[in-house]
Protein 1
Amino acid sequence: MSDIAAKPDHGYLFDVASEQHGYFTVDQARHCGFGWRALLHHSKSGRFISIRRGLYRLRDYPSSPHDEVAASWLAVGKDHAVVSHESALDLLNLSDMIPNSVHLTVPRSRRGLIPPVGATVHTTTEPLRPDEMMTVDGIRISSAARSIVDAAEGGSGPEQIEMAVAQALNRGLATVGELRRAVSTRGARVRQLIEPTLARTVASEPPILASPRDTV
């Protein structure tokens, strides 16, 4: 049995779009019963806004600060891409960086895709592990530890990386062990940026006192 709606289902489409900041793709619309004629009709009437090829937005859906990020993520492919680098740090509020582009990471097999305007696409030979991904505001992003080392490797300023490390540790978004494992796969510059902050954090932790039972 097909999972494509027999006729346009606006409620179904709204449910899909509401999980994506009001955006939806042509394929998602098709599964909600909207063929190209219906899409064209509602685009001309203004009910749907054409964002870029293959991507639309509900006109009356409330805007949010992350609309541009969500649009770029969906345009590249939500099943393949994650928001990463400085853009992920921004969504996590882990630094004062204002990304000049929406950074996205995709598998190397998709390296030929054309990035949306305002987006930068990075490729990776190793798919991100489940523990290297998380969801923020409905958008799939790289984890704090992965985002920090990616941003460091990508050339982000030392003071911003130090701030991101300190805040991630303080807020429990990453552990020293997670960051050190992430750093171990990168080059010398990344280690030099991140390891000093980790060392200071470990040195500042209070010692674990032995319990009376341990001293008997």
Note: Residues 106 and 193 are 25 Å apart (CA to CA).
Protein 2
Amino acid sequence: MRWLMVGAFAFALMLMSACTSAVGRVPASPQPIPQSNFQKVTIASPSISAPPVVYEPLLSTPTPSRRPLAVQPVSSPKVTTGPSRVITGEASWGYGFKGHVVTRYPRGTVIRVCGPIGCTGKVRSWGYGPAKRTGRIADLDVNVFEDVCGPRGRGVCDITLEVWK
């Protein structure tokens, strides 16, 4: 087993030395080709009556023409003035929402939750719920519930949801 490890180590060293020798060389800087290296080329045409075509080298390099730049439309910044909808109702708390809230809005909807103690920053709706029969408008993460409503021993709390787009 030991000879296998020594062989693998030797192979790795040999491979590294081969790579560094190829990498260590610096390529030569490109040099322009002198005009004297170019020659006239004559190509005979396929038909007998047509004269041969002569290609001559250019003595000066033509400058490439620049295309006009396309004008990009300027988009105005999106200004959000306030929430698109405000809903008031009861909320409960639950585990495992990772700082999010569960509402009947689509997943990823940006929401701000306000309660008797204060408001949260903007959080995202994490799932769909609670059931309509419960009468609640949201299930909050434990930390969000405690920040907005106080101790979780209350169970439920009156809140206001501000839905932002």
Note: Residues 56 and 148 are 83 Å apart (CA to CA).
